[in-house]
Amino acid sequence: MRSQTDNLGSKPQPRGVFHRSKKFWIILSVILIAIAIGLGVGLGVGLTQGSDSDSDSNPPSTTLVPTPNTTETYWQPKAGETWQIVLLNALKNTSLNVSVYDIDLFDNPTSTIDTLHAQNKKVICYFSAGSYEPNRPDSSQFTATDKGSELDGWPGEYWLQTDSSNVRQIMTSRLQLAKSKGCDGVDPDNVDGYDNENGLGLTTYSSVDYLGFLADNAHSLNLSIGLKNGGAIVDSVIQVMQWEVNEQCAQYNECPLFESFIEANKPVFQIEYPSGAPNVDASAKRSSCGNSSEQDFSTILKNMDLDEWLEEC
Ligand SMILES: *[C@@H]1O[C@H](CO)[C@@H](O)[C@H](O)[C@H]1NC(C)=O
Ligand SMILES: *[C@@H]1O[C@H](CO)[C@@H](O)[C@H](O)[C@H]1NC(C)=O
Ligand SMILES: *[C@@H]1O[C@H](CO)[C@@H](O)[C@H](O)[C@H]1NC(C)=O
Ligand SMILES: *[C@@H]1O[C@H](CO)[C@@H](O)[C@H](O)[C@H]1NC(C)=O
Ligand SMILES: *[C@@H]1O[C@H](CO)[C@@H](O)[C@H](O)[C@H]1NC(C)=O
């Protein structure tokens, strides 16, 4: 529930344009036949209407561009920051020599954030923006219609309908909580429902739209925000995102998808889960770390629980 869902059991679906699912081709055929029968020829204008209902791997039709606002002073970290992420419980060890901590929004008291700030560290507060979790203080505010399929590997956790005004209101409150605790930025998880069996028809377009909503609201509170995983939508959202938090791009050979963050001098906070952690031998470490430091990726080795154990590359 704290990290991601799509990589635990199986390899995520290929995301390229040419890897359409069988379902996509069936739906496309049905749409084409319906158009041919229903409209005959020459009615090209009608086609735009149907485009929202097709495949979940369509490229988003918009690119998010920040509203120019010279008064904004939210934190904008640079590529290569060092970091730690602890999501299992409230953070205990605040004294690692890293510049950024990513910790749970709900589990950590304001005093922990103050302690980190006193050491000139920045604090990113994690919450799930795209899934219902049963044990959060605001869980009862989600309605039945907000929820879709259960997340694979996370019993009791459900994909959320990110267009829902109720869901968006709850997330606005979570951003306000982050602000009131003094977080510098937020790490909204599970924004890639399109890459998973979500039961809600979520598409890449839904994700881009939702991230635009989250970014506007975070920025207006002077909070930074980053993209979590979401390799397929990097180009559409990178302008309003201050970093990428990525899981297992080395393991799945997907790191080039996130290279544009480095080119924009924004961090790629990369987590690899090497086998055998916390006892990682040299060869497991080499394959997890790859050449990430040369590429300026901020790569750390963690175990799946995201407890306090960490090994830097
Ligand atoms: C915190 O982590 C640092 C670095 O690993 C270590 O030196 C220190 O002993 C730890 N502190 C506690 C209280 O565990
Ligand atoms: C902390 O890390 C920085 C580089 O990230 C290094 O320059 C510095 O010497 C480290 N401090 C200690 C006490 O290890
Ligand atoms: C916005 O946040 C940054 C760092 O998190 C801080 O340096 C800056 O002073 C804040 N700006 C305002 C207007 O509060
Ligand atoms: C500019 O950003 C500040 C701080 O985030 C916000 O309070 C203000 O409303 C914004 N102004 C405009 C015109 O968007
Ligand atoms: C590092 O990896 C990237 C691919 O992710 C590759 O393009 C590049 O050549 C590698 N650099 C070195 C020095 O091996």
UniProtKB/TrEMBL annotation:
Its EC number is 3.2.1.22. It is an enzyme of class 3 (hydrolase). It catalyses: Hydrolysis of terminal, non-reducing alpha-D-galactose residues in alpha-D-galactosides, including galactose oligosaccharides, galactomannans and galactolipids. GO terms for molecular function: alpha-galactosidase activity. Residues 82-309 form the Glycoside-hydrolase family GH114 TIM-barrel domain. InterPro entries: Aldolase_TIM, GH, GH114_TIM-barrel. Residues 49-70 are annotated as: Disordered. Keywords: Membrane, Transmembrane, Transmembrane helix. Residues 56-70 have a biased composition (Low complexity). It holds the Pfam family Glyco_hydro_114. The chain crosses the membrane at residues 24-47. This is alpha-galactosidase. It comes from Calycina marina.
